[in-house]
Specification:
Blueprint (H helix, E strand, L loop, with lengths): L8 H10 L3 E5 L2 E5 L4 E5 L6 H10 L4 H7 L1
Antiparallel strand pairs: 1-2, 2-3
Length: 70
């Protein structure tokens, strides 16, 4: 799986907001949901490439689709 390097938490939240997710809760992590799927985004900048790839996969996106939304 190609990686998604150098994505900040703010960019990740912006992408998932465009895809219909909303912030449910914030603490050490940001929890976003679209009503069916819950995503947990760490408050790191940048987010580890492997972690971001797994979050995109949980949302049903390929790394290429995620990069296109940036």
């Amino acid at each position: 799986m190609p990686r998604i390097p150098g994505v900040s938490q703010h960019d990740a939240v912006r992408v998932f907001t465009k895809l219909g997710y909303r912030i449910v809760r914030q603490s050490g992590h940001i929890v976003m949901s679209n009503g069916k799927v819950r995503l947990i985004i760490p408050r790191h900048s940048p987010i580890n490439a492997i972690t971001m790839g797994a979050i995109a996969k949980d949302a049903g996106l390929t790394p290429e689709q995620f990069r296109a939304q940036l």
